[in-house]
Amino acid sequence: MPKRLPPGHEQPLYEIKANLFKALAHPSRIRVLEILSAAGEPTPVSAILAQSDIEPTLLSQHLAVLKRHQVVTAERSGNAVFYRLAHPKISELLVIARTFLADTLSARRDQLDTLSTLPPIGGSGVG
Fold first, then answer.
1. What is 13-86's CATH topology?
2. Of 6, 62, 76, 121, most Cβ neighbours within 10 A?
3. For the HTH arsR-type domain, which residue ranges apply (predicted)?
């Protein structure tokens, strides 16, 4: 939860960034953000539930964390609550993270491929 500081005592930007990444630091929250990003429009909780396979109580908690950290916004319409990304750059952040992971995993695969070409050590048969 974001800390409340007395007036005149601003939180350093790196702490604010760290809190943002803490809000993103759960696979279910990333999945929710990906669903909202793909939808591109306000999405009802029922649709998020259907696409995410997250238990309703847990989904509610994850949405509350994302909302508290201003990553998503919510709007009630009748009995339904609709969520959307609070800023379009959040979609870009998700794309950048996915690209980074793909590049990292590709580099690891290349390293493993190289490892498999090494001669065995001490008769163990393992590189």
1. Arc Repressor Mutant, subunit A (1.10.10)
2. 62
3. 9-105
